[in-house]
């Protein structure tokens, strides 16, 4: 079967199911029976070899890259608990992939409390478990109440990025809901604005800030071979690149900014984007025009988006010109095979 490759597809190990209750409260506001909803959501996440695979066959999805669902390790404030979750999740997922390696691959879950430990876990996952990279769910929650946030653009995380560069594997950046203190009814931002949480608004606002910070903070100057992947058409950053570059390139900014180049440069050299959950044809074409087709890959965002909906949209997408079919094929599969070095035929 030669079909599309979807690279931002969620799952969860059985031992972590109990951690998704907070996500359910945000995902389905006003829900009364949290336990039933959690069980239903867990069933969708855990299902790899039955309904998910059947729908993949029906819809022409050849291969999925799987990763631990958000917030995963990034939602665990205790470093030891987060590290144990990563270890357990990666071992479980490696066993699932072994059941059907021609249809599934994996990205490693990583605790980001300790950059040295994160690098070691990534190395283990890639070299021993056969994973094709890692996935982090935005910032790492820290502190006893979860209100602390660790971002990965500081020099403290250089040991992690050094390992990423040595292994030459991508790191996928995925959004997450805010920690519990930010969800309290008296929280200043989202306490009275729960309707803004999640994929519609809050996800791209939070994660785009992190991506801007990585680009402008000098990470890619110190580690120029590092590649990251950002879903949902780059969390809307491509649509703001002109304005962001305009101000970053101002003379008074250039003299003090910690990066050598502007955002567009890094998006063309260090950042890849995907279509996950943002089935927007005009936006996709703008991204291809701005960044180049080699920087764009296909994803669905299973099970948060329906595979059927994503594939119905993808079948409707066309690109003009004599190379239109090649552009579509590169986005659908070729780029993922090259960037993640997947064991599939181009």
Automatic annotation (TrEMBL):
User: Which UniProt keywords are present, listed alphabetically?
Assistant: Decarboxylase, Lyase
Q: Name one GO molecular function term.
A: hydrolase activity
The answer on whether this UniProt entry bears the keyword Lyase reads: yes
Report which superkingdom the organism of origin falls in: Eukaryota
Q: Where is the Amidohydrolase-related domain?
A: 46-342
Chain ranges passing through the membrane:
none
Task: For this entry, list what GO says about its biological process.
Answer: secondary metabolic process
Keyword ATP-binding, does the record have it? no
The protein's matches in Pfam families, at most eight in alphabetical order, are given as: Amidohydro_2 (PF04909)
Q: Where is the signal peptide?
A: none
Q: Which GO terms describe its cellular component?
A: cytosol
User: Which family is this protein grouped under?
Assistant: Belongs to the metallo-dependent hydrolases superfamily.
- The protein in question is named Amidohydrolase-related domain-containing protein
- Source organism per UniProt: Exophiala bonariae
**What are the leading ranks of the lineage?**
Eukaryota, Fungi, Dikarya, Ascomycota, Pezizomycotina
